[in-house]
Write a structure and sequence with these properties.
- Keywords: NAD, Oxidoreductase.
- Belongs to the UDP-glucose/GDP-mannose dehydrogenase family.
- GO terms for molecular function: NAD binding; UDP-glucose 6-dehydrogenase activity.
- The chain folds into two domains: 197 residues, NAD(P)-binding Rossmann-like Domain (Rossmann fold, 3-Layer(aba) Sandwich), CATH 3.40.50.720; 166 residues, Rossmann fold.
- 46% of the residues lie in helices and 14% in strands.
- The protein has 434 residues and is of the alpha/beta class.
- 47% of the residues are buried.
- The chain contains 17 helices and 14 strands.
- It binds uridine-5'-diphosphate-xylopyranose.
- Uridine-5'-diphosphate-xylopyranose (UDX) binds next to helix 9.
- The site of uridine-5'-diphosphate-xylopyranose has 19 residues, from helix 9.
Length: 434
């Protein structure tokens, strides 16, 4: 099948490359000429394991191409995906849909023959209705169906998530569109991925409900972790003790500095707004968002406490800046708030991240960057581990201790074992472990 992917950001690029790998003919479109030029040179604008190889292979085999010209790509396609950004709108937290609607207008102008327009971007309930209205108003003659097909991939594991999804959600009541979507995803049937057909509005809401539920799960275990610290319990044992109950499930119960990234913070806010607008406020999700944003700064206070109550004039080494490992994404990363809290209290920051330092330079101020974890620790009065990159999981502890000015480690991801750290002579604080 021929596919046009409008928006060559994270979701567009991963989905486009994976569809091409399944044998479809995919043209990825983006308005940014420098991005398209880079992609045509074989440079991938984001860090995602395996993506560069997947793109190169499918370009070489002639199934994947990149262009700034939307019209010819759309004209040739049987399915057109909208995978543009839906950032939080400044001021009110609603999702900013201007890129989605612009894409709808551009698609309408170009459409030829029966075309299925698919929103893959995370969009509030009712956006598909508006996309359809825009297209039909501009082109009453067009044979078109608008489908919601939300994406559930995680950064850092995006290709595997796309190719082996837990489920595929298809929101449309148009039988012909259902058949087109079914052909597109047929290569996945081998993996027996369940395909859930539902109404378009239901599909749109399903994506928000999934992200809000996962954000709630994380926030729940984070609060249990705080309680563990007060009562002398161990949050990892609690997480295992509840997670083995199938009704709860073991995943997303890892306590930490609070969730970040491009999805959970933005999507919980957008869901809260939609719910308020419709007179059905989601008080649980409102609380989750508030608890999570307070938590990130509270992690700074935890480091200050570990340093004996003050970090004024001290140097704090920060390991890990991105919101999670295996990405260079700094969006809503907990490190931003932790570092701000420490700087406000008078600390100097030296930081290291395996892939995120270029992106970090754009959002953090007054930070020195180190060459590696030991260079980062050199002369520091405390070290805080914020992101659990594999590289930080087996640090040479005697070498780390020798590099530090004071052997204080605050491990916000519970990577190390308290008894090991004690044996090596560290003052060690972690999350939810007394
Ligand atoms: C998320 C959803 O998982 C994905 O389905 C959706 O399509 C996009 O949003 P992503 O933001 O890439 O994906 O990362 P994810 O692995 O879900 O982690 C999000 C945040 O939660 C990170 O900051 C992570 O560190 C944190 N987290 C995750 C925890 O603190 N504890 C956990 O147990 C899991």
């Amino acid at each position: 099948m021929r596919v046009a992917m409008i928006g060559s950001g994270y979701v567009g690029l991963v989905s486009g490359a994976c569809f091409a790998d399944f044998g479809h003919e995919v043209c990825c479109v983006d308005k940014d000429p420098s991005k398209i030029a880079a992609l045509n040179r074989g440079e991938i604008p984001i860090f995602e394991p395996g993506l560069a190889e997947l793109v190169a292979k499918n370009v070489r085999e002639g199934r994947l191409s990149f262009t700034t010209e939307l019209a010819p790509a759309v004209r040739a396609a049987e399915a057109v995906f909208i995978a543009v950004g839906t950032p939080s709108r400044r001021g009110d937290g609603h999702a900013d849909l201007s890129y989605v609607y612009q894409a709808a207008r551009d698609i309408a102008a170009a459409i030829e023959g029966y075309t299925v327009v698919v929103t893959k971007s995370t969009v509030p309930v009712g956006t598909g209705d508006e996309v359809e209205r825009i297209i039909r108003e501009a082109r009453p003659d067009a044979e078109v169906a608008v489908v919601s097909n939300p994406e559930f991939l995680r950064e850092g594991a995006a290709i595997a998530d796309f190719k082996r999804p837990d489920r595929i959600v298809i929101g449309t009541e148009d039988e012909r569109a259902k058949a087109v979507m079914s052909d597109l995803y047929r290569p996945l049937y081998l993996n027996q991925a369940p395909v859930l057909a539902m109404s378009r509005r239901t599909a749109e809401l399903t994506k928000y409900a999934a992200n809000a539920f996962l954000a709630t799960k994380i926030t729940f275990i984070n609060e249990i972790a705080d309680l563990c610290e007060q009562v002398g319990a161990n949050v990892q044992d609690v997480a295992r003790g509840i997670g083995l109950d199938n009704r709860i499930g073991a995943k997303f119960l890892h306590a930490g500095p609070g969730y970040g990234g491009s999805c959970f913070p933005k999507d919980t806010l957008a869901l809260i707004k939609t719910a308020q607008d419709h007179g059905a406020p989601m008080r649980i999700v409102e609380t989750v968002a508030a608890v999570n944003s307070q938590r990130k700064r509270a992690m700074g206070r935890k480091v200050i406490a570990a340093c004996g109550g003050s970090v004024r004039g001290k140097t704090v080494a920060v390991l890990g800046l991105t919101f999670k490992p295996n990405t260079d994404d700094m969006r809503d990363a907990p490190s931003i708030d932790v570092i701000a809290a420490l700087q406000d209290a008078g600390a100097r920051i030296r930081a290291f991240d395996p892939e995120g330092m270029a992106a970090a330079r754009a959002v953090l101020t007054d930070v020195d960057y180190a060459r590696d974890p030991y260079d980062c620790a050199r002369g520091a009065d405390a070290l805080v581990l914020v992101t659990e990159w594999d590289l930080f999981r087996a640090l040479d502890l005697p070498r780390l201790k020798a590099a530090l000015n004071a052997p204080v480690v605050v491990d916000l991801r519970n990577v190390y074992r308290p008894d090991d750290m004690k044996r090596h002579g560290f003052t060690y604080l972690s999350i939810g472990r007394a």
